[in-house]
Sequence to fold (220 residues):
Amino acid sequence: MASLPTGARIAVATSLSAKKTISAVTNAAEAVCTSAAHGLQVGDIVIVFSGWGQLNGRVYRIKAVPTPDTFTLEGRNANTTNTNLFSPGGGAGGFVKALTWVDVVQILNNTSSGGDAKKVTYRYLESENEQEINDGFTPVSRSIEIDADAIETPGYDALVDLSATGADTIQRLTMKKGAVSYLACTVAFNEEVTMQDGQVNRCKADFSGKSKSTRYSNSV
Fold:
């Protein structure tokens, strides 16, 4: 059954842990990372930094903790079996964990852009016909407008602080039916109030993505 945006909730991570080292990542349907005394638990949310570009900068949920020194990333976006994309031994890096979350409330609208395929068009000298190949994806960005009267809410304060510091964060979008999407990003919050006759006064926050978003069919 189709989903509607009504009832969706948006939150931001207001603090991230210190970065810990990942010494190795396996080639597997769901990658297993080695990190000494990582301290993670099932359901934790992390940003992974990796020598593998397809993994780097993306947000993952922890599916399993086989040992105190290893953890498994959840979902199809953690599939590293293709050794052409994920060269064996090349996935080491680090991670940071989301420590605290704050809901952003009184949101009037939410839009997203980017993530579209980039195309390169070319033509050989001897040919009349142009050809096209894919060349990655455009940056992902999201924006929200919130009621200007939300100024006294914790979510408003969180946007102000994240914008002022330029700190890395994670935006979490949870749909009414439980599907959830994560985006590693930075925030730019414009407190200037937009006023329009017949409309609620509003302020705008932009979220500039660090990589692709990651989606799960259900929240934990």
